[in-house]
Specification:
alpha/beta; single chain; 6-stranded parallel sheet; Rossmann fold; 40% helix; Glyco_trans_1; glycosyltransferase activity; 405 residues; 16 helices; transferase; Glycosyltransferase involved in cell wall bisynthesis; 9-stranded mixed sheet; Glyco_trans_4-like_N
């Protein structure tokens, strides 16, 4: 079977053999690419549907069992309800059809997939209405409207966690199955041996926002630093760079001592920062899943997360696979940090249980099996890879699709 995957795709981490240096920039999301790679490893033919602001005409790239169809995205798509983007994606899906489509997020990629009439499963990785409540701007209004259209038309939905599922309307839950996010099998292979920990804790988040709660983490670290002046705190991600919002806040509040503001880094560098840290502090007030804590668990770094932070308590097995604390309280965060930093037995226990729980619950094999079982239920027959290897005539094609209906 040929499976289509629609969503934001990071072209740089796909398992393909294209000798092209200047790939167009896409709306990248690592999990989509890891999902595609997992299907390829199992022998499936995969057609990925994504888009880019950098191309004037639709583009098709082919390598082995993978075909990537890149549609166009115009500036400020929210002002047009993403209608151009949806239609460009739909045309590409019709011109290069898959037998089944898995769409990531309940927005433009899913809307386009539904318009093709192909059997489609749509994955929620957030809840549009909850985002709108937290960030009440026009762009989120548009996203909520698209989500409403998609949810009303979709027959088969996937929630990326029980937390996401519980936020859905009851009528939506009836057509939704819970399938958690996963970590890629290559993640464990990238852990250095022997693993030598640095004398720092780390936080990796995207954005210095109320939801991510780095403010309380900085205040907590200042308390810990007073007892352990040799300890450093590495902040990674958007707004965490030197001169960024996090550093501005730290300077205004006298909290810069021992803090390194590393900013956005490539994934490999982020992961190496995480696995060499003594503790991953994840201070977010809410997470629909929590990929960074999961990656830390796999990498052998104990995790501290919020006891009421969305899916985080479930991800940490309710305190058995990581420490839970009240992230609204810098004092409570500091106390949790000190427990791990000063108790080697507890640290070893959290590390071992965190890794074991991650492998048993969120590994690539476990989660991909659940996806394929759901797809089989949808189409009414087993989902199996084709036995023949697809070999395109050329490794690169650029196609327009003006004639697609």
């Amino acid at each position: 079977m040929t499976i289509g995957v629609a969503g934001p795709v990071n072209l740089q981490i796909l398992n393909w053999d294209l000798k092209i240096k200047n790939l167009p920039q896409t709306n990248a999301f690592p999990l989509t690419s890891h999902f595609i790679n997992a299907l390829l490893k199992r022998g499936f033919k995969v057609i990925a549907y994504t888009n880019s602001t950098e191309i004037a005409e639709p583009m098709v790239l082919e390598s082995g069992n993978l075909k990537v169809c890149i549609s166009r995205q115009k500036p400020q798509p929210g002002r047009r309800l993403f209608l151009f983007e949806v239609e460009d994606l739909r045309k590409m899906m019709v011109a290069h059809p898959a037998e089944f489509i898995s769409a990531f997020w309940s927005y433009e990629y899913a809307w386009a997939a539904l318009k093709t009439g192909k059997p489609t499963a749509i994955s929620f990785h957030d809840v549009a209405f909850q985002i709108l409540l937290n960030i009440p701007d026009m762009f989120r209004v548009v996203r909520w409207l698209i989500n409403s259209i998609v949810v009303s038309k979709a027959k088969h939905l996937i929630a990326n966690s029980s937390y996401t599922y519980n936020q859905l309307a009851r009528r939506t839950q009836k057509k939704t199955r819970i399938i958690d996010n996963f970590y890629t099998s290559e993640l464990e292979e990238s852990i250095p041996e022997p693993l030598i920990k640095g004398n720092y804790i780390t936080t990796a988040v995207q954005g210095f926002t109320h939801r991510k709660n780095v403010q309380n983490a900085l205040h907590a670290f200042a308390q810990v630093r007073a007892r352990h002046p040799e300890l450093a705190y590495h902040l990674i991600g958007v707004d965490m760079e030197e001169g960024g919002l996090a550093q501005q806040y730290a300077q205004a509040n006298g909290l810069t001592e021992g803090v390194r503001f590393l900013g956005p880094l490539p994934f490999d560098e982020v992961y190496q920062q995480i696995v060499h840290a003594r503790v991953l502090l994840h201070p977010a007030r809410e997470e629909s899943f929590g990929m960074v804590p999961l990656e830390a668990m796999v990498g052998g770094t104990p995790v501290i997360g919020g006891s009421k932070s969305g899916f985080i308590p479930d991800l940490l097995d309710h305190g058995k696979a990581g420490l839970l604390c009240n992230v609204e309280s810098p004092d409570d965060i500091a106390a949790a940090l000190l427990r791990l930093l000063e108790d080697e037995q507890l640290t070893a226990e959290m590390t071992e249980k965190g890794r074991a729980f991650a492998r048993a619950s969120f590994s690539e094999d476990v989660i991909i099996d659940k996806h394929l079982a759901y797809y089989s239920d949808i189409v009414g027959r087993p989902i199996q890879p084709d036995n023949t290897q697809y070999e395109p005539e050329d490794s690169l094609h650029r196609n327009t699709i003006h004639t697609a209906k």
